[in-house]
Amino acid sequence: MNIVVCVKQVPDPYLLKFNLSTKSVEDFFYIINPYDRVAVEEAVRIRERTGVGEVTAVTVGPPDVEAVLRTSLTMGADKAIHVNSRSLKNLDAGITAAILARMIGRLQYDLVLCGRRSLDEDNGYVGASIAEQLGLPLVSGVAKVEVSADGRKLTAYRCVEKGDREVVECPTPALLTVDDKLNDPRYPSLPTYIAGLRKKIIKVEATELMKPQEASPATKILTVTQPKPRLKKGFSIGSSLSASERIKLILSGGVKEKGMKMLEEKPELSALEVVRFLQSNKIVAAQKQ
User: Fold this and answer.
1) Angle at 78 (CA atoms; ends 108, 114), nearest 5 degrees
2) Mean pLDDT for the chain?
3) Domains, the chain, ranges and CATH?
4) Helix (H, G, I), strand (E, B) or coil at 114
């Protein structure tokens, strides 16, 4: 099974700093998007289970984005394609998705994997747009995937509200956007890592896929600001409370003690009181005599 994985370079959130005076982001270090890392790991696992096919990582961006492709290769990907967008400026999610769709359309693939979201823009648009442009069935938020023995059908388990899972079956080729619950990316073995360092990265100019006059962004970032701080909720002391009750409330930080009842009866009577309490509060159903 040939699998294409779309990967993206994002700033490391643990090293990111925001300068309030200049209103700009500074002192950042780029890493592979964690959701895309999960997608690469799943692609490698599917290839290992089926025993056939190749995993190809694709990204769009300036020359420095090759680092995420190298990461994909050291994880076990077979090929990597860098679409150099240096000649195109102000790329938004729509243009990026169009370039990726045209690049993937040139490849032989049975499955396309994308991260469900990215840590920088977090719009979840690229995967869905690629599926639309390539005419592929789309399953989003995948937390588990099973591929049939012949590779013609897959079963995807989606994360939905309240921890529920939705099971979806679809034919291949298809596009899946994966959740970070899908797997835990492994640490590659030394031979796999060294082999990934030696593999070549295929380079393609973005102008071969899209003319400059077509690359007009539909969106524009106006400004970047920090979220407004949220004030912690305090507590008020009622005027009807006595002085001792007010002091207790202040010392407890506004947390009121829950009412309790001490049982000082024989074990049989204490157990009977507990059962009556559970039944009266409808915690357990009363048995009919």
Assistant:
1) 65
2) 85
3) 3-214 (3.40.50.620), 243-280 (no CATH)
4) strand
